[in-house]
Amino acid sequence: MNIHDFDFELPEELIAQVPLEDRTSSRLMVLDKVTGKVEHQSFKNILDYLHEGDCLVLNDTKVLPARLIGEKKETGAAIEVLLLKQLEGERWETLVKPAKRIKPGTVITFGEGLLTAECIDTGDQGGRILEFSYDGIFYELLDQLGDMPLPPYIKEKLDDKDRYQTVFAKERGSAAAPTAGLHFTEDILDEIRSKGVSIAFITLHVGLGTFRPVSVDSIEEHDMHSEYYQLSAENADILNQARANGGKIITVGTTSTRTLETIADEQGHFEAQSGWTDIFIYPGYTFKASDVLLTNFHLPKSTLIMLVSAMAGREQTLTAYQAAVEKKYRFFSFGDAMLIK
């Protein structure tokens, strides 16, 4: 399939720049993947589409304040570093701007020397392996010196760091938020439980792939970067129980979907496991785990809209996206939600 098969016109003013004050006040488009019927709802009506015995799957990854602004030690030139993935010891996979200034042996300082990093190796498209040195606790320094790594299409400053964090975030390690989960509050999760819907948690630390566009025309040639995931025995049991009882599994976000599709066997059974996944889901894929998908509205020609198209069909997805543009839905991380049932 060609990347241009997943393109659409998106007016820039529809890209949500700031989160809504109330997490649950977003709009909700509901797409029936069988009939193609589209409904326009409020996110608060999500309970109408969840039923007793179903299982809602949430990604409990926690976003690191992974964007650091430092200085090149030799010249004082400003350098931006985005932490992507911790390797062995104090070494991290990162994205650096401007990358051409950072070569092996280059030292970057942050917070007037509270934190320093030496470039160990180079990669493509701005990728650098940095080794950090510091006194104290790394994550405390990161909280002090780092900013939330908002996507490049968000130009506004985020006043409250917690608004780029889900209310159930627990396992720190992500370079970006699982944004479909941003719509939930503790109150609405309690309402969901009260309806007899179980909630299972998985972890997938969102990494490099989120920041890299598809750069090939034939999507089959695209290489996904690997991301760390884990599923506990307790949560595997919750998923298997819902499946055994005939309930539907509703994955919240493409990250939850990719994780469950990595773990599930051909019969849709789950076992506790952890590891690295580079699964790439696009039209033609047969889902083993996810019955229903709740997600946001995604970038044209992105791997995310390809996953949505695998679930709902490419033509139906693009038709729904056109309706979203016409009705001025808010797009991307701080935008509105879409339920594919």
Automatic annotation (TrEMBL):
Role summary: Transfers and isomerizes the ribose moiety from AdoMet to the 7-aminomethyl group of 7-deazaguanine (preQ1-tRNA) to give epoxyqueuosine (oQ-tRNA).
A GO biological process held by the record: tRNA queuosine(34) biosynthetic process
Keyword Isomerase: yes
Catalytic activity: 7-aminomethyl-7-carbaguanosine(34) in tRNA + S-adenosyl-L-methionine = epoxyqueuosine(34) in tRNA + adenine + L-methionine + 2 H(+)
GO molecular function: S-adenosylmethionine:tRNA ribosyltransferase-isomerase activity
GO cellular component, one term: cytoplasm
Provenance organism: Jeotgalibacillus salarius
Assembly with partners or alone: Monomer.
Protein name, UniProt field: S-adenosylmethionine:tRNA ribosyltransferase-isomerase
EC numbers on record: 2.4.99.17
Pfam families (alphabetical): Queuosine_synth
Gene3D superfamilies (alphabetical): QueA-like
Family (UniProt): Belongs to the QueA family.
Pathway the protein contributes to: tRNA modification; tRNA-queuosine biosynthesis
Keyword Transmembrane helix: no
Keywords recorded for this protein, A-Z: Cytoplasm, Glycosyltransferase, Isomerase, Queuosine biosynthesis, S-adenosyl-L-methionine, Transferase
Subcellular localization: Cytoplasm
Record SUPFAM superfamilies: QueA-like
First-level EC class: transferase
